[in-house]
Amino acid sequence: METGSDREGRNGFTRGVFTRELRFKMKDGFPATTTKKLAFRSVAAELFWFMSGSNDNKILQRLGCEIWTANAEASYWKPKAKFEGDLGRVYGVQWRSWRRPDDSTVDQLASVIEKIKKDPNDRRLIVSAWNPGEIDEMALPPCHNSPIKAKMAV
After folding, report:
1. How far is residue 94's CA from residue 90's CA, in Å, rounded to a whole number?
2. What is the pLDDT of residues 104-154, one digit of tens each?
Protein backbone atom coordinates (compact mmCIF):
# COMPACT_ATOMS: atom_id res chain seq x y z
CA MET A 1 0.00 0.00 0.00
CA GLU A 2 3.00 2.31 0.32
CA THR A 3 3.87 2.29 -3.39
CA GLY A 4 1.90 2.53 -6.63
CA SER A 5 -0.32 5.15 -8.15
CA ASP A 6 -3.87 6.12 -7.29
CA ARG A 7 -6.38 5.88 -10.12
CA GLU A 8 -10.00 6.94 -10.39
CA GLY A 9 -12.27 4.54 -12.27
CA ARG A 10 -15.81 3.21 -12.38
CA ASN A 11 -15.38 1.75 -8.87
CA GLY A 12 -13.95 4.88 -7.27
CA PHE A 13 -10.28 5.09 -6.37
CA THR A 14 -7.89 2.16 -6.60
CA ARG A 15 -4.14 1.88 -6.22
CA GLY A 16 -2.20 0.27 -9.03
CA VAL A 17 1.14 -1.44 -8.48
CA PHE A 18 3.15 -2.49 -11.51
CA THR A 19 3.87 -6.24 -11.84
CA ARG A 20 3.47 -7.36 -8.26
CA GLU A 21 2.89 -11.10 -7.82
CA LEU A 22 1.07 -12.39 -4.76
CA ARG A 23 1.27 -16.02 -3.69
CA PHE A 24 -0.99 -17.76 -1.21
CA LYS A 25 -1.15 -21.21 0.30
CA MET A 26 -4.72 -22.39 -0.06
CA LYS A 27 -4.30 -24.66 2.96
CA ASP A 28 -4.11 -21.42 5.00
CA GLY A 29 -7.56 -20.32 3.77
CA PHE A 30 -9.16 -18.44 0.88
CA PRO A 31 -6.94 -15.49 -0.09
CA ALA A 32 -9.49 -12.67 -0.21
CA THR A 33 -8.15 -9.20 0.44
CA THR A 34 -10.79 -6.52 0.18
CA THR A 35 -12.26 -3.56 1.99
CA LYS A 36 -15.75 -4.55 0.83
CA LYS A 37 -18.14 -7.24 1.96
CA LEU A 38 -17.25 -10.45 0.13
CA ALA A 39 -20.21 -12.28 -1.37
CA PHE A 40 -18.41 -15.62 -1.12
CA ARG A 41 -21.30 -17.73 -2.47
CA SER A 42 -21.52 -15.55 -5.59
CA VAL A 43 -17.75 -15.68 -6.03
CA ALA A 44 -17.76 -19.48 -5.68
CA ALA A 45 -20.73 -19.82 -8.08
CA GLU A 46 -18.99 -17.61 -10.63
CA LEU A 47 -15.78 -19.63 -10.37
CA PHE A 48 -17.62 -22.94 -10.82
CA TRP A 49 -19.45 -21.37 -13.78
CA PHE A 50 -16.10 -20.32 -15.29
CA MET A 51 -14.72 -23.83 -14.82
CA SER A 52 -17.74 -25.29 -16.64
CA GLY A 53 -16.87 -23.20 -19.71
CA SER A 54 -20.32 -21.61 -19.88
CA ASN A 55 -21.30 -18.28 -21.36
CA ASP A 56 -24.96 -18.52 -20.26
CA ASN A 57 -25.91 -16.01 -17.58
CA LYS A 58 -29.13 -17.95 -16.87
CA ILE A 59 -27.05 -20.79 -15.43
CA LEU A 60 -25.22 -18.34 -13.19
CA GLN A 61 -28.53 -16.84 -12.07
CA ARG A 62 -29.83 -20.31 -11.17
CA LEU A 63 -26.79 -20.58 -8.90
CA GLY A 64 -28.02 -17.44 -7.12
CA CYS A 65 -25.44 -15.14 -8.69
CA GLU A 66 -26.34 -11.87 -10.44
CA ILE A 67 -22.77 -10.63 -11.03
CA TRP A 68 -23.07 -10.77 -14.85
CA THR A 69 -26.74 -9.83 -15.31
CA ALA A 70 -26.15 -6.15 -16.06
CA ASN A 71 -23.58 -7.11 -18.71
CA ALA A 72 -25.92 -9.67 -20.30
CA GLU A 73 -28.63 -7.03 -20.54
CA ALA A 74 -26.46 -4.04 -21.51
CA SER A 75 -27.50 -2.11 -24.61
CA TYR A 76 -23.97 -2.31 -26.05
CA TRP A 77 -24.03 -6.12 -25.81
CA LYS A 78 -27.65 -7.16 -26.53
CA PRO A 79 -27.35 -6.82 -30.36
CA LYS A 80 -24.37 -9.22 -30.30
CA ALA A 81 -25.92 -11.83 -27.98
CA LYS A 82 -26.77 -15.10 -29.70
CA PHE A 83 -29.45 -16.04 -27.13
CA GLU A 84 -31.11 -14.58 -24.04
CA GLY A 85 -28.44 -14.59 -21.32
CA ASP A 86 -25.52 -15.05 -23.75
CA LEU A 87 -22.35 -13.31 -22.56
CA GLY A 88 -20.16 -14.31 -25.47
CA ARG A 89 -16.62 -15.68 -25.20
CA VAL A 90 -16.01 -14.62 -21.58
CA TYR A 91 -13.68 -16.17 -18.97
CA GLY A 92 -14.97 -19.75 -18.82
CA VAL A 93 -15.24 -20.05 -22.60
CA GLN A 94 -11.64 -18.87 -22.93
CA TRP A 95 -10.46 -21.25 -20.19
CA ARG A 96 -12.21 -24.28 -21.70
CA SER A 97 -12.38 -23.44 -25.42
CA TRP A 98 -9.62 -21.00 -26.48
CA ARG A 99 -9.65 -20.72 -30.28
CA ARG A 100 -6.49 -21.49 -32.20
CA PRO A 101 -5.81 -19.82 -35.57
CA ASP A 102 -7.01 -23.01 -37.34
CA ASP A 103 -10.36 -22.81 -35.43
CA SER A 104 -9.59 -25.85 -33.29
CA THR A 105 -9.75 -25.18 -29.54
CA VAL A 106 -7.60 -25.62 -26.46
CA ASP A 107 -9.00 -26.59 -23.06
CA GLN A 108 -6.50 -24.58 -21.01
CA LEU A 109 -7.88 -25.76 -17.67
CA ALA A 110 -7.68 -29.47 -18.52
CA SER A 111 -4.20 -28.94 -19.94
CA VAL A 112 -2.95 -27.24 -16.78
CA ILE A 113 -4.46 -29.97 -14.57
CA GLU A 114 -2.64 -32.64 -16.59
CA LYS A 115 0.62 -30.66 -16.40
CA ILE A 116 0.25 -30.28 -12.62
CA LYS A 117 -0.09 -34.06 -12.30
CA LYS A 118 3.08 -34.64 -14.34
CA ASP A 119 5.22 -31.73 -13.15
CA PRO A 120 3.81 -29.54 -10.38
CA ASN A 121 6.86 -27.26 -10.65
CA ASP A 122 6.36 -26.49 -14.35
CA ARG A 123 6.73 -22.75 -14.97
CA ARG A 124 4.07 -22.87 -17.68
CA LEU A 125 1.03 -23.60 -15.52
CA ILE A 126 -0.95 -20.67 -16.88
CA VAL A 127 -4.62 -20.16 -17.73
CA SER A 128 -5.61 -16.87 -19.35
CA ALA A 129 -8.94 -15.31 -20.29
CA TRP A 130 -7.36 -12.28 -21.96
CA ASN A 131 -7.79 -13.01 -25.67
CA PRO A 132 -7.32 -9.74 -27.59
CA GLY A 133 -8.66 -11.26 -30.80
CA GLU A 134 -12.04 -11.93 -29.18
CA ILE A 135 -12.61 -8.87 -26.97
CA ASP A 136 -15.45 -7.76 -29.27
CA GLU A 137 -17.11 -11.15 -28.72
CA MET A 138 -17.32 -10.64 -24.93
CA ALA A 139 -20.06 -8.85 -23.00
CA LEU A 140 -17.25 -7.70 -20.69
CA PRO A 141 -13.53 -8.13 -21.30
CA PRO A 142 -11.60 -9.73 -18.44
CA CYS A 143 -11.14 -7.32 -15.55
CA HIS A 144 -7.57 -8.51 -15.16
CA ASN A 145 -5.09 -9.10 -17.93
CA SER A 146 -2.40 -10.99 -16.10
CA PRO A 147 -2.56 -14.77 -16.42
CA ILE A 148 -3.80 -16.95 -13.60
CA LYS A 149 -0.87 -19.09 -12.55
CA ALA A 150 -1.71 -22.40 -11.00
CA LYS A 151 0.94 -23.60 -8.55
CA MET A 152 0.44 -26.71 -6.52
CA ALA A 153 1.99 -27.01 -3.08
CA VAL A 154 4.31 -30.00 -2.99
Report:
1. 6
2. 999 999 999 999 999 888 888 889 999 999 999 999 999 866 445 555 444
Residue 113 within any structural domain of the chain: yes
Q: Is 47 helix (H, G, I), strand (E, B) or coil?
A: helix
Is there a catalytic annotation at residue 65?
A: no
Catalytic position from the list 22, 143, 153, 154: 143
CATH number, residue 125? 3.30.572.10
Query: What's the structural domain count of the chain?
Result: 1
Domain-embedded: residue 41: yes
Residue type present at position 102: D
pTM comes to: 0.74
Range of the domain at 114: 34-149
